[in-house]
Amino acid sequence: MKLEVQAVSKTYKDKKALSNISIIFKEQTIYGLLGRNGAGKSTLLNIINNRSFPSSGDILLDNTRITDNEELLNHVYLMSEDNLFPSSMKVKEMFKISEEFYGSFDWDLANRLTDLFELNQKTTFKKLSTGYRSIAKLITALCVPCDYIFLDEPVLGLDAGHRELFYESLIETFENRPRTFIISTHLIEEITNLLESVIILDQGEVTLQKDVETILQENYTLSGPRDIISDFTKDLNIIGKEELGDFVSVHVSGISPETLPTGVRLAPLSLQNYFVQLTKRK
């Protein structure tokens, strides 16, 4: 059951938020949806999950339009900064409402995760800190029976320890019940090891869809004296550069060279740095 974004555009008055977006999300895959602030990530996620409507284009699940189709919409879930539950509702009641809406709920996992994160299910949502509100919504997202789980800035307000716990929990639940996760976050370095594929949005357009393994294999950094680097890289595909006096680091896309000139060092290019180079404003 593939999920397809088909030529989706969104315009707000005079501003075009999304321009002809086409993406196919595969089953049982963990994606990173990356983009700078204002790139259109949240707009896209809201459209996919029927919280907003495109100006043109369609969202298809199993080759059928998902818009206003309750049966198909039960296969997708969006966790975001928006709070869809009454602030006076207790955490356990949030879980019960989710179970009623989606037809089932993994209570064993929910109970285990609330213990792990030390979240009291009897606490009302309004009494939770920002971090614990995120935790309550994340637990809900991991326990609903949906095939496509969208997480928009999922670790907002979480400290480093809780973020690590969440990443571990996500991988564990993915292994126990494979489904597709789409994670939109600015903490790229932290989630690189979770991701199988990334989609980069820039100014409302998809600029890259590629497997993470391929990106890491095909991109690297060369550092050394300016004159040597300049001569050695003149025929290479340079995607970015940093300079400090006569010392230069260039970021290169392509097959890494087998031999290097004296004084030149080669290092892997991280996914986060790759993203920064691709979206850097000139």
Automatic annotation (TrEMBL):
PANTHER family associated with the record: ABC TRANSPORTER, ATP-BINDING PROTEIN, SKFA PEPTIDE EXPORT ATP-BINDING PROTEIN SKFE
Keywords, in A-Z order: ATP-binding, Nucleotide-binding
Record's keyword annotation contains Hydrolase: no
Protein name: Multidrug ABC transporter ATP-binding protein
Pfam families registered for this protein in UniProt: ABC_tran (PF00005)
Gene Ontology MF terms: ATP binding; ATP hydrolysis activity
Source lineage: Bacteria, Bacillati, Bacillota, Bacilli, Lactobacillales
Superkingdom of the organism of origin: Bacteria
Annotated ranges, domain ABC transporter: 3-228
Signal sequence extent: none
Entry annotated with the keyword Nucleotide-binding: yes
